[in-house]
Amino acid sequence: MKRFFKAFAVLVAIASAAGCAKEIETTSGENEKRYFDAWLSVQMENSVMDSWVASCMEDDSYSCLWQEAGNGLYILAEENGTGDPVKDSSYIFVSYVTYDLDRNVLETNREEVSHKTGTNYDVANYYGPKVWINSDASLTVGVKDIVSGMNIGDRKIFIVPAWMNTSDRYSSEEEYIANISSTNYRIYDIEITDASNDINRYQTDLMQGYWEQEVSKTGPENQKEYWDTTYTGFLFRQYFDKLDKDENGSPAMLFDDDSTIYINYTGRLLNGQVFDTTIADTAKVHKIYNQSKTYSPVAVKWSADSTSITLGGSSDIIDGFKSLLKHLHNEEPGENEAFTDGESAVAVFYSGLGYGYYGSGSTIPAYAPLRFDITVVKEEE
């Protein structure tokens, strides 16, 4: 379709030139504008986009708004939420799909869309809201202009022409077209599920709610004994059913500083999705099993100084996991004591101690709090 209209635009230019004594030169921006106008004309006349929008909105009675939003932006459909307006520079949680003008899916974080269209679908991937920063530095001008007019809970389908796929701001559509730097046209389907002006506070509040739910599972009589909030962004719990306790009732881990111990661990998001484990059966249950990976306990060189802790011989460990290992030591062992297997602990920590604003691959999103469970074993098995 795109080639056809590109050719159409060229033919129009040729026909115009034929009636003139002097050939009229056009810029790439003007050609892109003609192409886009021709595409719009066909879509509006034939209502091709209307039926597609209706299927996206899952409402047969829904039709395109074709609402102009300035500088070539068009809003095709919208559903209004009940939340607060999105603020500039806020962190917004977005469920989205992007399409080209032929309505091919280019990118999405909606599992059903990814699965249906085969767009980089993998059962191990994270599917859920993605964090965007509502700023000119993070979003293209076209997306920023639409998002800034939305509320939490709103959903909009809109078209961004090529000249609005830029981070540079101008005062008029003519200037955007004259300074065009992209030939990519995009259709966005965006729903804002939440927003926050303080992403760290947002995460700690989320962790606290998660923590309280997990505490409630242990029974009221054990809540105070088993749980410990150690510092901002990090929560820790140690299970010591098999351990002796010190005079204050705290568990006594039975290994010395600079000891080598072995652990099994499982890492997951707060929605329960497992992204890493040393246990084969756990990997299979959560559908992340990799035949090329060796599933076995990993060696930890333990130290009271978290910067000296190594995992599998490497010191390249995220800070939250290091803190989890460091907090295993609660009391110095006696002369004839040795640690026992079955000692276990869990930690939940925010992204500042994990993978930050980048996340990790397709399994850990940006600004994601993480949970790690570990179990100490006697030796590598």
UniProtKB/TrEMBL annotation:
Protein's name according to its UniProt entry: peptidylprolyl isomerase
Location of the protein in the cell: Cytoplasm
Single GO BP term: protein refolding
Signal peptide: 1-21
Coiled-coil spans in chain: none
Catalysed conversion reaction: [protein]-peptidylproline (omega=180) = [protein]-peptidylproline (omega=0)
Gene Ontology terms for molecular function: peptidyl-prolyl cis-trans isomerase activity
InterPro entries with a match to the protein in the record: PPIase_dom_sf (IPR046357), PPIase_FKBP_dom (IPR001179)
Major site of localization recorded for this protein: cytoplasm
The entry's keywords: Chaperone, Cytoplasm, Isomerase, Rotamase, Signal
Role description: Also involved in hydrogenase metallocenter assembly, probably by participating in the nickel insertion step. This function in hydrogenase biosynthesis requires chaperone activity and the presence of the metal-binding domain, but not PPIase activity.
Organism: Candidatus Cryptobacteroides faecigallinarum
A GO term from the CC aspect: cytoplasm
